[in-house]
């Protein structure tokens, strides 16, 4: 029996080398490393990179990389914008983060294990932007901006001057209806509305939240029937269950604010299966090569752009939510939606067809 008052000695069992390796996170390249590479690697276009840094008064501020003086702050004058390295929070290529201190993301060097090289990632982002089509831009609703397709400019004032017959008119989507997820997305919209009344008009109503799988141009009732047949074929294949994970915020051209949807194998299988069935029936897919899974939260309209005298959604309006997790959504049904101002009684887009992934439901 141990003497009273004496502490028992416990031997510390050393961890094996494999256990230590499992616990140790890979070393991440620093902001200084990123700056050096952007300054000296001619294959990375400096003018397309942005820096997010912590300002003592304004919080997170984003500036073009080329607008900053990267010399030591102690040797520049008071009129030069130099930046202490420890304040840097992230770097972006256009609208996509390529280095993020908080999330331990490093695409510039791949030091934390990102699967793509920075050059492959840049190519992917450039391709996404080049081919991006968002069904809300082509909506006939006068509250959203109409965008010409093909080689037409977005700056066309009178749509009657051009042939708009090539515009897509349908899209296939999954609704976002999980109450917790919808409520978290609503918090972002409410925050924007409280700070900018005009932008509040551009926020997507909760009943219209969705993720688009494919955008279509269907010219006839026969084409619509072909798209419906494709949906039925997808449902008949008993694909694995798909759950969407909504993580963080991002934007397209600073005009569309959205929640990122994390890509996963089951989501990719469902989308690929849908595209293949549509192609097999000669349906015209306008976004075949530019799938960017996302849930739109707000998008600028032309009237609001004119009234605000700005064509951008200011980052400070959503920055506090940028890295939030917004929840999940299990996909139970797919909807063939009509673009336009028409809405169902529940506020969602008018649908030519709705299909359950377990059983078909005709709502036409």
UniProtKB/TrEMBL annotation:
Question: Where does the signal sequence lie?
Answer: none
Show the ranges annotated as biased composition (Basic residues): 1-10
Q: Which domain of life is it from?
A: Eukaryota
Which Pfam family is an annotated match for this chain, by its short name? Answer: AKAP7_NLS
State where composition is biased (Basic and acidic residues). Answer: 14-24
Q: Does the keyword Transcription belong to this entry?
A: no
Annotated A-kinase anchor protein 7-like phosphoesterase domain ranges read 168-357
MJ1316 RNA cyclic group end recognition domain spans which residues?
Answer: 28-101
Determine if Cell membrane is one of this entry's keywords. Answer: no
Which residues lie within the region annotated Disordered? 1-24
Q: Which InterPro entries match?
A: AKAP7-like_phosphoesterase, Cyclic_Pdiesterase, Leng9, MJ1316
- What keywords were assigned to this record? Receptor
The record's listing under PANTHER family reads: LEUKOCYTE RECEPTOR CLUSTER MEMBER 9 (PTHR46729)
Q: What is the protein named?
A: Leukocyte receptor cluster member 9 like protein
């Amino acid at each position: 029996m141990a003497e009273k008052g004496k502490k028992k000695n416990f031997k510390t069992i050393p961890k094996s080398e494999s256990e230590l390796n499992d616990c140790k996170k890979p070393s991440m390249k620093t902001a200084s490393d990123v700056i050096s590479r952007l300054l000296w690697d001619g294959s990375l276009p400096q003018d397309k990179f942005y820096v997010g840094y912590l300002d003592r008064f304004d919080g997170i501020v984003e500036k073009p990389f080329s607008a900053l003086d990267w010399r030591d702050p102690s040797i520049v004058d008071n009129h030069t914008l130099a930046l202490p390295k420890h304040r840097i929070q992230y770097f972006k290529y256009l609208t996509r983060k390529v280095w993020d201190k908080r999330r331990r993301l490093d695409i510039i060097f791949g030091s934390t294990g990102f699967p793509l090289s920075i050059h492959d990632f840049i190519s992917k982002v450039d391709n996404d932007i080049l081919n991006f089509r968002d069904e809300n831009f082509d909506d006939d609703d006068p509250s959203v901006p109409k965008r010409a397709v093909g080689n037409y400019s977005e700056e066309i004032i009178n749509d009657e001057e051009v042939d708009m017959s090539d515009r897509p008119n349908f899209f296939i989507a999954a609704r976002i209806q999980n109450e917790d997820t919808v409520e978290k997305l609503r918090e972002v919209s409410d925050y924007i509305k409280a700070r900018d009344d005009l932008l509040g008009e551009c926020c997507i109503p909760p009943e219209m939240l969705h993720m688009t799988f494919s955008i279509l141009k269907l010219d006839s009732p026969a084409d619509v029937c072909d798209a419906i047949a494709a949906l039925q074929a997808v449902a008949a294949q008993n694909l694995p269950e798909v759950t969407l994970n909504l993580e963080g915020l991002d934007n397209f051209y600073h005009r569309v604010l959205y929640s990122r949807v994390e890509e996963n194998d089951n989501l990719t299988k469902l989308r690929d299966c849908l595209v293949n069935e549509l192609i097999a029936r000669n349906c015209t897919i306008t976004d075949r090569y530019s799938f960017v899974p996302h849930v739109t939260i707000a998008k600028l309209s032309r009237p609001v752009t004119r009234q605000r005298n700005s064509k951008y959604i200011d980052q400070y309006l959503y920055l506090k939510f940028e890295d939030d997790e917004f929840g999940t959504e299990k996909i139970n049904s797919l909807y063939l939606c009509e673009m336009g101002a028409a809405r169902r009684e529940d506020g969602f887009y008018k649908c030519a067809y709705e299909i359950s992934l377990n059983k078909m439901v005709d709502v036409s």
